[in-house]
Write a structure and sequence with these properties.
Number of domains: 2
Number of helices: 11
Helix content: 25-40%
Radius of gyration: 23 Å
Strand content: 25-35%
Strand order of the largest sheet: 6-7-8-3-9-10
Structural class: alpha/beta
Length: 324
């Protein structure tokens, strides 16, 4: 993979981080284009935060190479820190300070010139919708307000790349949606957004996604590509009477890998969707569950992620078997 050019914001090759004998990030390679919203998706403990800490100059890599904003992640960590915004999942705010005092504090850290400091502060307060709370102590703000203030502080110095590490963790759904509106607005102005999350629905908001599992990048692409090209099984949407009771009958059918309640029906993951659909049309009415609809649908990101993880686990188990 070629390293940064003038269209690339982040590029890493064989990036690795070990803690003793534990490999937290295992030879990960990818590139992020300027102005892209790139989602780094994975379960807790997959290596997301360790990767982001290497990219932001907080943690030195154990192996591999990379650039962020054109600067080398090994040799130019301080230059990277000066040219990016970083928001951790714990919101690095001072609870005893007011909203305005927090912004002033970060303005000092980023050495924002006096002539632009006031204008940038007003921009952050306006962007975060905090005009009526500017004199409030940060400790009394709700999670959603703290989240927007933390984002404002992270982009006070107008960085071209922002790293958001689990920024919506523990925040209510409405605040999460509003936060993503702010991210879209920033990307619309040409800012590159690198965001880690374990919320599958948030992956749909990203231009491209990298799926990380046990420290390894197991898939990368647009949400559409991953759903249409990387999902190895078919997903059927099934509407029948008493779906919860019907689950047992569905699970026993040959070729069915997984059954889950979904709304007022079922989602069925199958190796061969057409064959299983035929079996459902015959067996469910016979078992006393009249069938109203069965159709193949585009899988959700959660379906894709579970499928890819299961495939990786099977491959790992096969390798262990061969080594015995």
């Amino acid at each position: 993979m070629s390293h940064a050019d003038n269209t690339t914001a982040v590029a890493v090759t064989d990036l690795e981080r070990r803690f003793g004998s534990f490999v937290a990030v295992n030879r990960v390679s990818f590139a992020v284009a300027k102005g892209e919203i790139f989602g780094f998706l994975g379960p807790n403990g997959a290596g997301k935060s360790t990767t982001i800490r290497m990219l932001t100059g907080i943690l030195a890599p154990s192996g591999g190479s990379g650039t962020v904003a054109g600067f080398d992640i090994r040799r130019e960590a301080e230059k990277i820190k000066a040219n990016i915004g970083y928001m951790s999942q714990r919101f690095s705010l001072y609870e005893d300070l007011t909203v305005e005092e927090n912004i002033d504090f970060y303005g000092g850290i980023y050495r924002i010139p006096a002539e632009t400091k006031k204008q940038r502060k007003e921009w952050v307060i306006e962007m975060a919708g905090l005009a009526e709370r500017r004199d409030s102590r940060t400790a009394i703000l709700s999670g959603g307000w703290k989240q927007r203030l933390a984002l404002g502080c992270a982009i006070l110095h107008e960085p071209t790349i922002i790293f958001l590490d689990e920024p919506t963790s523990g925040v209510d759904p409405i605040s999460r949606r509003k936060f993503w509106d702010l991210i879209y607005a920033l990307a619309g102005k040409g800012v590159t957004v690198f965001v880690t999350t374990h919320y599958m629905d948030e992956a749909e908001y990203c231009d491209r996604i990298g799926l990380i599992y046990r420290g390894e990048l197991i898939a990368i692409g647009t949400p559409e590509h991953l759903k249409n090209e990387r999902m190895q099984e078919d997903v059927l949407d099934v509407l029948c009477d008493r779906p919860q009771d019907a689950m047992g009958a569905v699970e026993r059918l040959p070729g069915v890998k997984e059954v889950a309640l979904f709304g007022r029906g079922l989602h069925v993951v199958a190796e061969d969707g057409e064959a299983v659909a035929q079996a459902l049309r015959q067996r469910l009415p016979e078992a006393g569950y009249p069938l109203h609809r069965v159709e193949r649908i585009t899988p959700s990101m959660e379906d894709v992620f579970v499928s890819l993880i299961e495939a990786r686990d099977r491959a790992d188990a096969d390798r262990r078997e061969v080594r015995r």
